[in-house]
Amino acid sequence: MFVFSTVRANFESRYASSLVVRFEPITPIAEPRGLPENVSAEVKAESDEWGIDGHSHSWLTLAELDAVPWQKNLVRLCGFVDPREFQEYEKAGEPGTWTYSLDRRGYSEVTNDEMRELIATRELDEPENEWSRTTIGGTLYLTEVAWSHTWAEVATELLASMEKLRVAGAAEGFEPDQLRYVFWFDN
User: Fold this and answer.
1) 126 and 166 part of one domain
2) What's the structural domain count of the chain?
3) Which terminus has fewer CB within 10 Å in the chain: N or C?
4) What stretches of the chain show up as alpha helix (H) in DSSP?
């Protein structure tokens, strides 16, 4: 018997809509396996609701997830920042906000060194409001920056749910290799 657990990874909610992710080459924990043969009716119905928008169905046991070196594997993040965000990046090692795509209109892309020079020699304009980009002399300058996090840092909700699953499963007499996550991806 298996216990089913649903989790929405912290990575998705914090990063997915606002970045470009560049992974170092990694070996997957397991190739997609499809839905388990003994999948619950509840999970099967949810999978069916996704239709063609759900793909790469698979599952992993808690034992397989426990074997992942969460503190050693890194995800490399990158995005484009304005002058004020670049200053935050320089101080903290990562920006508070950034954008991942550029439409090539309304801004000037510069290197990190050029951004440092602009900040050192020109006065930053005051943003119109808290959501406005910071400009210099009315021009929006953007530069690309990159930083890394461990998998553990971006999957905090998953790791917390793993512990809850472990405790709930143990209370019912299940071992980690008898507890699984069933998942799929959205188009």
Assistant:
1) no
2) 2
3) C
4) 10-15, 41-50, 62-66, 83-92, 112-121, 151-154, 156-171
Characterize 107-142 residue by residue with b for buried, 16 or more Cβ atoms within 10 angstroms of its Cβ, and e for exposed: beebeeeebbebbeeeeebeeeeeeebbbbeeebbb
Which residue matches tokens 């997957």? Answer: 28
pLDDT band at 1 (very low <50, low <70, confident <90, very high): very low
Q: Is the pLDDT of residue 7 over 60?
A: no
- Residue span of the structural domain in which 116 resides: 77-148
Residue 169 falls inside a structural domain:
yes
Is 95 within 8 Å of 86 (Cβ atoms)?
Answer: yes
Cβ distance 102 to 82 under 8 Å? no
